């Protein structure tokens, strides 16, 4: 059963780069599990990733940010990649956020 829950207050304090980079970790886990044929782990990572993307969208929707649309589009693509056809470009998309967050942290 699915027991994962995000602390939405702490999540809201992260930057968009950190939020999307962390969500990207679950995207990578889900797609890697799918490629291995491990449907249980793929489904668990899918749920965690969706929770993170939903929390991210909620943060940015509350701010009436145009970023909300891109976040929701990335969410759609994630579902499609896991449930239908794998999209390696999706992992690259999310990786850019993780790299940018790391670079920003190192220069701060």
Which terms summarize this structure?
108 residues; mainly alpha; globular
Secondary structure class reads mainly alpha
The major sheet is characterized as:
none
Report mean pLDDT, rounded to a whole number. 93
Order of helices and strands: HHHHH
- Global morphology: globular
Measured distance between first and last alpha carbons: 40 Å
Plain-language structure description:
- The chain contains 5 helices and no strands.
- The model has no long low-confidence stretch (mean pLDDT 93).
- The chain is 81% helix and 0% strand.
- The chain is globular and about 40 Å long.
- The protein has helices at residues 8-13, 16-36, 39-62, 67-83, 88-107.
- It has 108 residues and is mostly helical.
Gist of the model:
Helices cover 81% and strands 0% of the residues.
Task: Give the arrangement of secondary structure elements.
Elements: H1 8-13, H2 16-36, H3 39-62, H4 67-83, H5 88-107
């Amino acid at each position: 059963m699915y027991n994962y829950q995000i602390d939405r207050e702490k999540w809201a304090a992260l930057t968009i780069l950190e939020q999307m980079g962390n969500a990207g970790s679950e995207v990578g886990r889900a797609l890697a599990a799918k490629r291995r044929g491990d449907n249980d782990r793929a489904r668990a990572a899918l749920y965690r990733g969706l929770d993170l993307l939903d929390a991210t969208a909620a943060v940015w929707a509350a701010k009436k940010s145009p970023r909300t649309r891109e976040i929701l589009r990335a969410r759609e693509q994630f579902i499609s990649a896991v449930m239908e056809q794998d999209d390696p470009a999706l992992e690259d998309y999310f990786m850019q956020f993780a790299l940018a967050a790391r670079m920003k942290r190192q220069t701060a």
